[in-house]
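Hi V.,

Quick status before I head out on leave. The structure for the redesign project is tokenized and pasted below; the design run finished overnight.
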């Protein structure tokens, strides 16, 4: 089931991203390498997802002359990791957008019901005025992503200003997120085949939080 007809959905099929994703999918990739490569992929994704940030003109003085050049303008950026695993994607994005604020949404997926349980939300005060990059390596059933975005909208975020960025998505999760929040942009490094009976993404990369933090 990976025929999807969903607007606002992009798979970043850049060769560097695909190569690095293959490294972290492998079961023998250890915690240190996993963390480093997630960081690298996130930096590459930041380059792609920031393509539509607005620019304005500014007059500057080079060593030779005055000149009108471009600078980032308009909405400021906030990166919002979904805890825990989203934390692994933050530093890579901040390398390219160092002035971004960081907010946190803490959710875990109950192992029996698979329902997301919210346990922590701390956001910049002005999220209504910011462009928001919500990050989580995995979009599986979509429950966590929908709950995290609900939490942001409830606190004033503009759905049109939200991009959800993940490393691996299941078609089921993309559909659920799109149906709940059609205005939110969904960006993934890979669209996998589907979910197994435990709602893990297949082929996937396993439990992203455990692999990042070495907790299994
Ligand atoms: C993982 C992952 C997502 C969620 C995706 O987190 O990082 O947040 O599962 O699954 P879903 O799309 O079916 O909701 P998990 O709940 O394992 O929590 P953790 O990051 O604390 O390990
Ligand atoms: N959460 C993960 O970490 N991995 C999956 O495959 C699904 C949910």
């Amino acid at each position: 089931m990976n025929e999807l007809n969903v607007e606002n959905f992009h798979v970043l099929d850049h060769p560097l991203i695909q190569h690095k994703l293959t490294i972290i999918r492998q079961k023998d990739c250890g915690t240190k390498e996993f963390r480093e490569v997630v960081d690298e992929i996130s930096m590459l994704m930041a380059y792609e997802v920031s393509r539509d940030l607005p620019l304005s003109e500014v007059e500057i003085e080079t060593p030779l002359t005055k000149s009108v050049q471009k600078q980032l303008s308009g909405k400021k950026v906030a990166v919002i990791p979904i805890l825990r695993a989203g934390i692994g994607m933050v530093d890579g994005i901040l390398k390219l957008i160092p002035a971004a604020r960081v907010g946190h949404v803490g959710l875990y997926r109950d192992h029996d019901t698979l329902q997301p349980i919210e346990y922590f939300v701390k956001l910049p005060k002005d999220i209504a005025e910011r462009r928001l990059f919500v990050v989580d390596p995995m979009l599986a059933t979509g429950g966590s992503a929908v709950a995290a975005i609900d939490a942001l909208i409830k606190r004033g975020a503009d759905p049109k200003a939200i991009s959800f960025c993940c490393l691996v998505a299941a078609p089921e999760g993309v559909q659920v997120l799109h149906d709940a929040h059609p205005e939110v942009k969904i960006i993934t490094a890979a669209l996998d085949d589907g979910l197994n009976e435990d709602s893990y993404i297949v082929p996937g990369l396993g439990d992203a939080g455990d692999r990042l933090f070495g907790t299994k």
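Above is the designed sequence. Residues 138, 140, 200-201, 204, 207-209 surround uracil (ligand 2) (CB under 6 Å).

G. will cover questions while I'm gone.

Best,
W.
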